[in-house]
Write a structure and sequence with these properties.
The protein has 4 helices and 5 strands; from the N terminus they run ββββααααβ. It is an alpha+beta fold and about 150 residues long.
C-alpha cells in the first residue's frame, strides 16, 4: 500500500532536546481560527504548545532547534483517539448505566462513572510502553518556510 499525503497526519515543530534515541519536539497545535486577524478578540480561538517524544534510531542526524515535521498515519491517529476518548467514554457511560440500574442515585452514579476512569488511566499508564509501540511517530526535516512562529 502506497502512502500519500492524504493518509498522514503532520505537525510542524522544533526540536527542543535529544536524549539518546528520543527526540523531544515542541509543536504548536492551533485551532482553525487562530490565524484569523480578529482571533485575539475572540474567545474561541486557541493555540496550545505540546511536547511530543519521538523514538528515532537515527536521532544523531537531528539538531536542537531544527525545524521538523512530526508524522503519523491516520490509523495511528484513530487508535490514539479510541484510547484517549472512545474507551473512557464507554467506561464512564457503562458505569453510570449499571449504577442507575441498581437503583443508585444519579449523583453517586456520576461520581462512580468519573471514579471508574481512574483505574482505566492507571492501566494505560502501566502499559504505556506497549502503547508507544502502537502509537508511533516519525520525523522528517521541514522546509524553513513550513514553520510558522
Amino acid at each position: 500500500m502506497q502512502n500519500t499525503m492524504n493518509d498522514k497526519i503532520s505537525h510542524s515543530g522544533i526540536i527542543d532536546s535529544i536524549t539518546g534515541t528520543k527526540v523531544h519536539v515542541r509543536i504548536v497545535q492551533s485551532s482553525a481560527c487562530s490565524s484569523c486577524k480578529v482571533a485575539s478578540y475572540c474567545s474561541s480561538a486557541e493555540s496550545k504548545e505540546k511536547m511530543i517524544d519521538v523514538r528515532c534510531l537515527d536521532a544523531r542526524k537531528y539538531k536542537v532547534g531544527q525545524a521538523v515535521n512530526v508524522l503519523a498515519s491516520q490509523s495511528v491517529g484513530m487508535k490514539a483517539v479510541v484510547l484517549a476518548f472512545v474507551v473512557p467514554t464507554l467506561v464512564l457511560l457503562a458505569t453510570i448505566i449499571v449504577c442507575v440500574n441498581y437503583g443508585i442515585s444519579d449523583g453517586i452514579a456520576a461520581l462512580a462513572g468519573i471514579g471508574s476512569l481512574i483505574p482505566y488511566y492507571m492501566v494505560l499508564y502501566l502499559i504505556r510502553g506497549k502503547i508507544e509501540n502502537i502509537v508511533t511517530f516519525y520525523l522528517e526535516p521541514a522546509n524553513e518556510t513550513s514553520i510558522t512562529k
